[in-house]
Design a protein that fits this description.
- The protein is built from 15 helices and 13 strands.
- By secondary structure, the protein is an alpha/beta fold.
- It folds into two domains: about 210 residues, Rossmann fold, CATH 3.40.50; about 160 residues, Rossmann fold (3-Layer(aba) Sandwich).
- The strands form two sheets. It has a seven-stranded parallel sheet.
- Strand 1, helix 1 and strand 2 form a beta-alpha-beta unit.
- Helix 9 packs across helix 14.
- The longest helix is centred in the first third of the chain and has 17 residues.
- The chain starts with a strand and ends in a 7-residue tail after the last helix.
- The model has no long low-confidence stretch (mean pLDDT about 90).
Length: about 400
C-alpha cells in the first residue's frame, strides 16, 4: 500500500485543499494517507497530525522578526514572506515511512530552506503544490503587475533595499538547482503553470497542471426558497453573493465590485436586489459602498453555512485580480450557482462563458456589472468542467504517482 503524507500550514483557506486531497486519498484501498499541519485552526480531522507548541512558537518568532525588519505596503503589494526560522519534519515517523510527500503552503515560519533541503535529501517522491507564486519569486505571494520574477527579482518594487528579495531569490535558486530532479511541481491552474515555466526559478522544473481536489456533501443544488427561509430573504428578490476569507485583501478586487454595484443601481432598485457577503470585512464600509440591502454573514467556518449562502443566491461574483484556482468558484458551481469573474489568472479556466457564468473584461467594473445582470436575467445550465470533478482529479494524481518523470 502506497503511503502518502500531505504537509500544510493549517486547515484554513488553501489548507483546505491539502486536507481534502488527504481525505480523497483516504477513500482509496491502495493508499495509506496522512497529513501534517502546523496549526489546527478549529476542527481536528482524522489522519492529520498537528505539531506541538515549539514549532508554532518558532513560526511566531519568525513572523515577528519579519514584521520588524521587512516593512512594506501590504495593501498595495499583498503578502511577502521570508523564512528565517523553520521546522525540520524529516525525522518524523510519518515522513520516514512515507513513499510520497506532498508539500503544500508552508510559509509564515513553518518551513525554512533547511526544512525543504532535509526533505529533498530523502529518497521520497516529492510533489510541491503551488497555491500561489511564492516559489517562483523572491518572496511575494503574487507579483501583482511586477515581472521581476522572470529575471531574478533584482529590482523588487516592494522594498527600498533591493537585496531583500534578490537574496532570497538566490537562496531558492541554489536550493532548486542543487536538488533538481528530486521533486516535481503541481499547479491547480494553467495560468500559474505558465508563470512558473516563464520564471527564472522554475523554468527548468517539471510542472504538472492538476486542479485542487474538491468533494463535499454540503455543496450541491438545493431548494432556493428553503435556503432563503433560513436567512429570512425574500424569495422574489434577485440575490448577488460575494465572499472571501479576507475581503479587504488587495488580491480580492473589492474596489471593482463597489464600482459594479454602482452601475447596477441603474438597472435595479433597492426593492429588486439584495446582497449576501461573507468573510472578514467591515459592515459599515459595505453599507457605504452598496445601495442595496445587505446580509452580512461575517467569517464562516462551517461548510454548511458557506453552502447556504450560495444556495440563497442567484449569482456569485468574484472580482479577484490575483487568484490561482479559487475554491469559492468550485463551491458555487457545485451548488448550481453561476459565477461572474474577471478574465484574469485561473478564473476564466473554470467558467464556461454565458453557460456556467460570465467572464468579464479584466479590471472592467462595468462589464462585471453586465455579467451579474446577464446571470440574473438568463436561465443558465450550470455545470462543473470535467477536469475539476473529484474523480477525475484523483485519477490525474494516481497517474502522477505511478508515472516516471515527465512534464505535462
Amino acid at each position: 500500500m502506497l503511503k502518502i503524507v500531505q504537509i500544510q500550514f493549517s486547515n484554513k483557506s488553501a489548507g483546505s485543499c491539502a486536507r481534502r486531497l488527504h481525505q480523497g486519498f483516504s477513500n482509496s484501498n491502495s493508499i495509506d494517507s496522512n497529513a501534517i499541519s502546523l496549526f489546527m485552526d478549529g476542527e481536528a480531522y482524522d489522519g492529520i497530525m498537528y505539531l506541538s507548541r515549539i514549532p508554532r512558537l518558532k513560526a511566531f518568532i519568525n513572523n515577528w522578526v519579519e514584521r520588524k525588519t521587512h516593512k512594506y505596503d501590504s495593501s498595495k503589494f499583498g503578502l511577502y514572506t521570508s523564512c528565517f526560522l523553520g521546522t525540520d519534519v524529516s525525522k518524523m515517523k510519518l515522513i520516514q515511512e512515507a513513499d510520497v510527500i506532498y508539500i503544500h503552503w508552508v510559509q509564515l515560519g513553518f518551513f525554512n530552506f533547511n526544512s525543504f533541503e532535509k526533505l529533498f535529501k530523502t529518497d521520497k517522491k516529492i510533489f510541491i503544490v503551488l497555491h500561489d507564486m511564492w516559489f517562483m519569486t523572491g518572496g511575494c505571494h503574487y507579483a501583482v503587475d511586477c515581472e521581476q520574477f522572470i529575471d531574478g527579482c533584482l529590482a523588487c518594487p516592494i522594498f527600498e533595499d533591493k537585496s531583500i528579495a534578490s537574496t532570497q531569490h538566490i537562496k531558492k535558486n541554489n536550493l532548486l538547482s542543487k536538488y533538481k530532479g528530486r521533486f516535481e511541481f503541481i499547479t491547480p491552474s494553467l495560468w500559474l503553470k505558465n508563470l512558473g515555466e516563464s520564471s527564472s526559478l522554475l523554468k527548468d522544473s517539471i510542472i504538472h497542471f492538476v486542479p485542487n481536489y474538491f468533494e463535499s456533501p454540503n455543496f450541491k443544488p438545493a431548494s432556493q426558497r428553503q435556503a432563503r427561509s433560513v436567512l429570512s430573504i425574500d424569495p422574489t428578490k434577485f440575490v448577488v453573493c460575494f465572499g472571501a476569507v479576507n475581503i479587504s485583501s488587495v488580491y480580492k478586487g473589492w474596489k471593482f465590485l463597489k464600482e459594479a454595484f454602482k452601475y447596477l443601481t441603474n438597472s435595479y432598485s433597492f426593492e429588486d436586489l439584495e446582497v449576501i457577503i461573507f468573510g472578514n470585512g467591515d459592515l459599515s464600509e459595505f453599507e457605504k459602498a452598496i445601495d442595496f440591502k445587505i446580509h452580512y454573514l461575517g467569517y464562516l467556518e462551517d461548510e454548511k453555512d458557506i453552502a447556504l449562502a450560495y444556495k440563497c443566491s442567484d449569482v456569485f461574483v468574484i472580482p479577484s485580480i490575483l487568484d490561482n484556482q479559487p475554491t469559492t468558484i468550485v463551491e458555487s458551481l457545485h451548488c448550481g450557482i453561476p459565477v461572474v469573474g474577471f478574465d484574469l489568472c485561473g478564473i476564466p479556466e473554470m467558467i464556461d462563458h454565458k453557460k456556467s457564468g460570465y467572464i468579464a473584461e479584466a479590471y472592467n467594473s462595468f462589464d462585471l456589472a453586465e455579467g451579474i445582470k446577464y446571470c440574473l436575467e438568463n436561465d443558465l445550465q450550470v455545470n462543473l468542467k470535467e477536469e475539476y470533478k473529484s474523480d477525475n482529479v484523483l485519477q490525474t494524481h494516481y497517474k502522477l504517482l505511478n508515472s516516471n518523470n515527465s512534464n505535462d
